[in-house]
Amino acid sequence: MAEGERDIDDFYSEYEEREVCSIYSTEDWFTSFVQGLLAVLGLASLWIKRQQEKPRRKFLTWFLDVSKQAFGACYAHVLNMVISAVIADNVRGSQTLDDECAWYAINYVIDTTLGLLITIVFLDWLEKLANYFNWVALKNSGVYVGREGLCHWAWQMTSWIIILTLVKAIICVVMYVFSSPLAWVGGVMFAPLAENIRFELLFVMIFFPGVLNIVYFWITDSYLKAGIEHDEGQNAGKEMSPTSNVGETVTPYSQMAASGDELNGSEAIGYGTTPTTAGTLV
């Protein structure tokens, strides 16, 4: 009897000392390596998408578009890790799941399904609000023309971060409300991987979300870049530049029409002039 009790004690002691997969640890270089690999793969997918574009965005335009994705992805990734760690320690009900990697995978599935749908809705609302209130910097996402180009990029970046924050807050609430059944599902699905925590980390960070990550980036990039009606204008060399537009007839953003035809050169309005008079930037 005493031997049986000893075996049970040994089992629970072994269970308590079992290593649990962590998505990031300062004591394990492998977690940092996986984070960097995830970033490289995500950016590489956007470069491949650029090669398939017709017409292809100019490099500066593409770089500014991708920078929004990159900053947003890093920000969202940090929030995902925080949410996973918080939910792992605050599961409702009797179920428990202290595996942060499992929670990250669950979070990622919700983020690239429900989260993506909410993101698209928010981006659509933002576009409607920008047109209604004439928020020039946000009316034409992905368009960086003239001297105010960087300011417009900054406003677009800020709005994108705000949208991501709202989406993550909603996802966090959803995960907390349904944390008990989600913990049970995660425990069942990731139990076979728990024996090798490094493989589990690679699985949840690289293999498992790899396709979802690429699809998410490609879809959001389609919303963040300029529409097809603006491609010709930007590819014709009308990207922001303090000197390249000197002597050219340009259209200030404050006088842009909702249709964006002026970006294609159908109308030319000079700075400091009335909407019906063409002017020259000097």
Account of the protein in words:
The N and C termini lie far apart (95 Å). The protein contains nine helices and no strands. It is mainly α.
A few lines on this structure:
The protein is built from 9 helices and no strands. It has helices at residues 2-17, 29-52, 59-88, 100-133, 136-139, 149-177, 179-190, 197-224, 228-235. The longest helix is centred in the middle third of the chain and has 34 residues, at 100-133.
Main β-sheet, in a few words?
A: none
Number of strands: 0
Helix content: 55-70%
Radius of gyration: 25 Å
Helix/strand order, N-terminal first: HHHHHHHHH
Shape: globular
Strand-residue fraction? under 5%
Uncertain segments of ≥5 residues (pLDDT<50)?
7-16, 237-282
The protein's oligomeric status is: single chain
**Alpha plus pi helix count:** 9
Structural class: mainly alpha
Q: Could you tell me how far the N terminus lies from the C terminus, measured between alpha carbons in angstroms?
A: 95 Å
Mean pLDDT: 73
Describe the structure using short key phrases.
mainly alpha; 9 helices; disordered C terminus
What order do the helices and strands come in, and which of them pair?
Elements: H1 2-17, H2 29-52, H3 59-88, H4 100-133, H5 136-139, H6 149-177, H7 179-190, H8 197-224, H9 228-235
